[in-house]
Amino acid sequence: MAGVVEERKRIVLPSDQDASGRSFGEEELAELTRVVRSGILFSPKGTAVKAFERAFASSLGASQAVACSSGSAAVHAAIAAIDPEPGDEIVTTAITDMGALTPILYQGAIPVFADVDPRSLNVTAATIAPCLSQRTRAIVVTHLFGNPCEMAPILEMAAARGVPVIEDAAQALGATYDGRPAGTLGALGCFSLQQGKHITTGEGGVVVSSDAALGRRAFLFVNKAWGYGDENPDHYFLALNYRMSELQGAVAAAQLPKLAAGVARRIETAGMLTALLAGLRGIATPQAPARGVHSFWRYCLRVDPGVVRGGAQAMAAALKAWGIASAPRYIVKPAFACEVFARRRTFGASGFPFTLARPEAVDYRPERFPGTYAGLEGALVLPWNERLEEEHVDYIATAVRAAHAALAERP
Ligand SMILES: *Cc1c(COP(=O)(O)O)cnc(C)c1O
Predict the structure, then answer these.
(1) Residues lining ligand 1, CB < 6 A?
(2) How many whole angstroms from 72 Cα to the centroid of ligand 1?
(3) Distances in Å between the alpha carbon of 394 and those of 135, 276, 386?
(4) d(CA 289, CA 185)
(5) Adjacency order of strands within the sheet including 327-328
(6) Among the four residues 189, 231, 348, 355, which has the most C-beta atoms within 10 Å?
(7) pLDDT tens, residue by residue, 158-206
(8) For residue 12, what are the contacts with CB-CB under 8 A and spacing of at least 6?
(9) Which residues have CB under 8 Å from 256's CB, separation 6+?
(10) Pocket of ligand 1, candidates 79, 121, 147, 194: which has the most ligand atoms within 8 Å of its Cβ, to mutate?
(11) Mutate to test the pocket of ligand 1, among 122, 144, 166, 171 (most ligand atoms within 8 A of CB)
């Protein structure tokens, strides 16, 4: 391997963890300056967050957007908007950010893990169906890596059961299904503005809905359920302060107009890599559903360990020698194998809300999740961002091809 690397000059790839892979500029600074000069850093009195919420909702064609402090807060607000009874079940995925799962527990509900399609790592109608019960109060679908779930059969099944769908679109800004933006197909959509997402305010999130009652509850939930603007406001129910500050709102407002170009660039460079990797035995490139558009938060390869010796782990080690920081498996283990679930580390020693769960709803034996384990085993996640140039894509492709040449078994 070392010899192969020396043949080419090593290139440093842009990273979304610093300025090299992000799109900050004068626009963010101008908005920040305006907000600081106004002296109003608090969104109920300011204009920046409100302007961002209006622009975000209208860019997606949703009737309402509620900005908040993180993607986790956005998911929490969506779950709280649904208002499950303690012990009610929310069907979700074990391949996601933990911030998409702990809010379910905080609301006293039980996350019920659906298996996933091992190729897309997304939930499907077929994997969700066996998880539905009399106690199902919502289905959370996560568009992993920016690749939209196959929504039509999921929406149809959910509608038939009268169960709302929450879309976790934290990784899927810019993705579409049937021409509609990810996050607007279900009852509520959740987004993250964390450092590494499509657009960012460092930390931040947004919930969208076109259902006035759900949107209202989400708004209240991030505002301690205080009825701002009401005739006789009160704290109407149990809720937190999850507001976005005007400082973040300023950056968000300046980031949003840059989103479309960033998504287009991500899709364009992903297409280049897919073309450059065509025909590599044992390596599958990402595939969007026929009716969907993938917005490439990350570029996830599938590595067949039966063809590539050592599988995704060995490929990742080889890419590291080229300075490419890929993530084999994406996450080390399915969420339910983490202590919070496996040991029920929740509220004191109570184990609540797991104490209310049907045994089948919290049965985490691996044989129940073949797609989840196979999907993680084969996944090799390449970092992606809107600042990748053709030379970077070329470099990544050369590195993957070199690693493949060294590791693939002869046919
Ligand atoms: C990032 C992410 C979250 C959580 O967002 P934070 O802003 O980090 O709290 C939730 N769900 C998914 C799928 C994510 O990728």
Answers:
(1) 70-72, 75, 96-97, 99-100, 142, 168, 170-171, 192, 194, 205
(2) 6
(3) 50, 8, 15
(4) 15
(5) 283-284, 298-303, 379-383, 327-328
(6) 189
(7) 999 999 999 999 999 999 999 999 999 999 999 999 999 999 999 999 9
(8) 20, 323
(9) 52, 55, 56, 59, 199
(10) 194
(11) 171
Instruction: List the residue whose alpha carbon is closest to atom 5 of ligand 1.
Output: 71
pLDDT at residue 1, as a whole number: 46
**pLDDT value at residue 9:** 75
Domains by residue range for the chain, with CATH: 2-22+259-331+373-407 (3.90.1150.10), 26-258 (3.40.640.10)
> Helix or strand or coil: residue 140?
strand
SS3 of the chain: helix, strand, coil, percent, to 5? 40, 15, 45
Candidates 185, 133, 154, 394; CA nearest to 275 is 394
Q: Residue 255 is which amino acid? A: Q
Residue 258 CA, ligand 1 centroid: distance in Å: 20
Atom of ligand 1 lying closest to residue 171 CA: 15
Question: Alpha-carbon distance 410 to 407, whole Å?
Answer: 9
Ligand 1 center to 171 CA (angstroms):
7
Indicate the residue type of 187.
A
